[in-house]
Amino acid sequence: xxxxxxxxxxxxxxxxxxxxxxxxxxxxxxxxxxxxxxxxxxxxxxxxxxxxxxxxxxxxxxxxxxxxxxxxxxxxxxxxxxxxxxxxxxxxxxxxxxxxxxxxxxxxxxxxxxxxxxxxxxxxxxxxxxxxxxxxxxxxxxxxxxxxxxxxxxxxxxxxxxxxxxxxxxxxxxxxxxxxxxxxxxxxxxxxxxxxxxxxxxxxxxxxxxxxxxxxxxxxxxxxxxxxxxxxxxxxxxxxxxxxxxxxxxxxxxxxxxxxxxxxxxxxxxxxxxxxxxxxxxxxxxxxxxxxxxxxxxxxxxxxxxxxxxxxxxxxxxxxxxxxxxxxxxxxxxxxxxxxxxxxxxxxxxxxxxxxxxxxxxxxxxxxxxxxxxxxxxxxxxxxxxxxxxxxxxxxxxxxxxxxxxxxxxxxxxxxxxxxxxxxxxxxxxxxxxxxxxxxxxxxxxxxxxxxxxxxxxxxxxxxxxxxxxxxxxxxxxxxxxxxxxxxxxxxxxxxxxxxxxxxxxxxxxxxxxxxxxxxxxxxxxxxxxxxxxxxxxxxxxxxxxxxxxxxxxxxxxxxxxxxxx
Length: 566
Prior knowledge:
With about 575 residues, the protein is an alpha/beta fold. Helices cover about 30% and strands about 25% of the residues. Strand 27, helix 14 and strand 28 form a beta-alpha-beta unit. Helix 6 packs across helix 16. The longest helix is centred in the C-terminal third of the chain and has 16 residues, at about 540-555. The relative contact order is 0.09. The mean pLDDT is about 95.
């Protein structure tokens, strides 16, 4: 005899659970409740409707109740909100949001997938502005209609996370001026400071007004007022601050709530009730690197969780590896991906670590579409275990971070990364791929072949008159260089070592760090003190990228004669 399964929430996690349940059994009754008018829509695709990349709003709808019934024999009930759970009687109370009528449904197993809610703080004066969020098809339709009707002179996006940046890009692509306000010193908090500056510059280059380290304190009529006192005229406000787990129904039912505010689940995605499961943005998940629970609002994990729940219900063993948080985002001409931990997380956890930052080409340089790829790899000391990576570039970044995510899952080290065998052909990559290259550099750092210094320390060193050596060739030096640096091209380096002092620290750089690494080794093999020779991570290209945004937005004096991003 078949069982009766109720699924609350009809988007990624809920719809996938329901579909997998049907694939595992034809006998069971499956009912899926969605309080909105749509099921199984492309949540991640919503911002792209603003620019016309997604041409019709209907294209965002992946399934309909009719298709669920016809293709899966699943009863998908839209505009039906589950308002209460009676765990003792194993029943839910459902409200038809169109008629207001309520009814009850019993269950053998209940699956919660209510998702997350957009954060909209009660900021004073919020009733005086047009505020929008982006969580569903209705939200994005309202926003696009408002933009097209009002023809705003300025749109303000509050928050520089995934949603905020994707909405910004697509509004700009549609021809509207946008200001982004981020209370933190940077957008996209999964990236480290020296990496994200590439994206800050890209926003400026696309005429986005980016305001960081300042927060919204109030609103007035079509005006955003910041803590700094700055007032931003804006006819439309988009809240992109972030999301919070929608755990209200679970709380009211007496289910255990985790430390992050998400619904607590075990390794089988069972809640504290043995007949209720939960998946998606509403739950908290275990991160095996930090050995703690986190809230992770990503579609990939939701899909995996959904499959696991259906499997467990049908007595198929579930493997729970945890989640390390792999993600990718497009920012105009750049792609940015990350996985695992960043420096802020590691410092907060007091983990002993080191990193490499390299900027090789993403494919063979003779290919006309080859591009620089900013790549950062973080690893634990003294084990060399890889614990995070970030990649930003105009080319393929997700492949490289996917490789690192796989190596992290296998508990791999930087020494092992050197020998990971990857595909190669000039249009796709290099014979020693970016990730292999990072493994070689990280292994050298771990085993103290040489030492490096982060790019964020160079301004202070330059202003203090430190001995900085530029080993690029004369044509590169003539275009741009660090103020007060000494120029000794690598082609002349060995003949001019007598110009380099042995009694003080020296800091070497080239365009991206590889030639200066060779110069560092030449010094070390010529009797220079290991502790006094430093390679500047990322070289002149990384320095220009790191300094540019703050120089341009604060008016401070540059430490370079010109910026060179070629």
